[in-house]
């Protein structure tokens, strides 16, 4: 049995940390990260202001990402996933393989939509998001005005698209909450969904 969950987030929303912590708590769990599918800088478009357009789907090898996810789902046991379950996992969940897909543009790409069991979206207010972004070092580094000129507008654009899609079932999470609160909520939610699968 396979269970897929998607963790989407505004930049620096905490999705990678949350995914890694969940992986350590859940049975037979693996992670695929959208960040691993960025095109090289030379293939990323530049707009008229000189901004590299990284926060769009065209900056990513999305076909390769979908292929990786589908390959994992076909044979999760061969993916190198650790099959040593956490001690508190009940027996009936030990036959489930869990894939966490984490990224910043997951729900706006149609070929991924049929693959999910649960969707989470970590949100942050503007000031906190900008503050966290300023503490990170990117390669290539952010140019002056990049956050306000490209990153934040793209986040708002994609989030609005999701909110306008009534059929899209997404659990929006407050990224300003502590990692412990977020982890506790998502873990409990996943276990509840897994138990439903096994009933």
Automatic annotation (TrEMBL):
<keyword id="KW-0547">Nucleotide-binding</keyword>
<comment type="pathway">
    <text>Cofactor biosynthesis; NAD(+) biosynthesis.</text>
</comment>
<dbReference type="GO" id="GO:0019363">
    <property type="term" value="P:pyridine nucleotide biosynthetic process"/>
</dbReference>
<keyword id="KW-0460">Magnesium</keyword>
<comment type="similarity">
    <text>Belongs to the uridine kinase family. NRK subfamily.</text>
</comment>
<dbReference type="GO" id="GO:0050262">
    <property type="term" value="F:ribosylnicotinamide kinase activity"/>
</dbReference>
<keyword id="KW-0418">Kinase</keyword>
<dbReference type="GO" id="GO:0005524">
    <property type="term" value="F:ATP binding"/>
</dbReference>
<protein>
    <submittedName>
        <fullName>NRK1 kinase</fullName>
    </submittedName>
</protein>
<dbReference type="GO" id="GO:0061769">
    <property type="term" value="F:nicotinate riboside kinase activity"/>
</dbReference>
<keyword id="KW-0067">ATP-binding</keyword>
<keyword id="KW-0479">Metal-binding</keyword>
<keyword id="KW-0662">Pyridine nucleotide biosynthesis</keyword>
<dbReference type="InterPro" id="IPR027417">
    <property type="entry name" value="P-loop_NTPase"/>
</dbReference>
<dbReference type="Pfam" id="PF13238">
    <property type="entry name" value="AAA_18"/>
</dbReference>
<dbReference type="GO" id="GO:0005829">
    <property type="term" value="C:cytosol"/>
</dbReference>
<dbReference type="GO" id="GO:0019674">
    <property type="term" value="P:NAD+ metabolic process"/>
</dbReference>
<dbReference type="GO" id="GO:0046872">
    <property type="term" value="F:metal ion binding"/>
</dbReference>
<keyword id="KW-0808">Transferase</keyword>
